[in-house]
Amino acid sequence: MSKRFTLCLSLCLAVGLNAQQLPQLNQFQMNGFMINPAFAGIEDVTDIKTGFRQQWAGFDGAPMTGWISAHTNLGKSTETIAYPGSLPLSDTTLFEKMYDRGGDKGLRHGLGVNMVYDRLGAFDRIQGQVAYSFHFPLFKNISMAISPSVGLSNHGIRTDEVFMFENNDALYDAYMGMGDRFTHLDISAGALIYAPKWWVGYTAHQLMQNDIYFGNQPTDAMLDLHHFAMAGVMLPLGNQLELQVNGLFKLAGDAPYTFDAGARMRWKELAWFGGGYRHDVAAYAMLGINITPCISLGYSYDFPINQIREGSLGSHEIVLGFRPFNPNRLQNKYLW
What we know:
- This protein has helices at residues 2-18, 92-98, 170-177; strands at 47-54, 64-76, 108-120, 123-139, 142-157, 181-195, 198-205, 211-214, 217-222, 226-236, 241-252, 258-267, 271-278, 282-292, 295-304, 315-322.
- By secondary structure, it is mainly beta.
- Strands 1-2-3-4-5-6-7-10-11-12-13-14-15-16 form a 14-stranded antiparallel barrel.
- It is globular and about 70 Å long.
């Protein structure tokens, strides 16, 4: 039926024009790399995460997202960093106090990859990206990382999910005649400043702001530039407890800003629990466990607080983590 297809297409394009186009994730604290590519290589181990999120369970065609990501530290430089003579400091020992030279806080490189499958109704997106990060010291015990991320995104309509009340719909046939999928280059960039107990970062996604196409014809929609700002702090509470407080600020195109704020408590580096609030959308609870030093599992559940709560069974998100090639049995310092 033409009106039905027009409504469906208009709603999905309106989402592309006026709302955040990237998937929501509750457990971004476990996998900052999915938000900011500069997290690649921040740990001394290879970090692999895979997850699935079913949003608004109970609604047909509700958003769902699956992903897998991996990043690793390619190594660090132990070379002594030469004193830059142009720096206007009369006392070189002051520079040495400010700037941690070599060692564990020396130059390092990270490499990461991620794959995402995102679906909303009959519309879906498959994305793959590769990120390189460069980590360097700013001051003693404070480092910075910068990272570009480059990949491809493929968007389309799954025609087997489109139900037509009437055959020979002119609008539907016209769009399908132009092709049901399109692929474009996707570029992001991130920056991160971090210390042993805190971090703050910024990411820009969809830098190219591509037009959305069907076949060789552009639509009225485009991929908006997304700004993400993320921060976290870890507070020791004795020998067995640690509190992590974090926030994520999001701005997409002309849409109103949104933010997430939450906290998690970790016990003996074995298990954690926490909760959070997504502005005007949901409150959520989370818990996780380190099954072994190399395997972790996290789960979260959303309690909708807007109109979606009528008829929705909430949202579920599960994240499974692996840290292979980990002979020292290290626990993650930043992304537990």
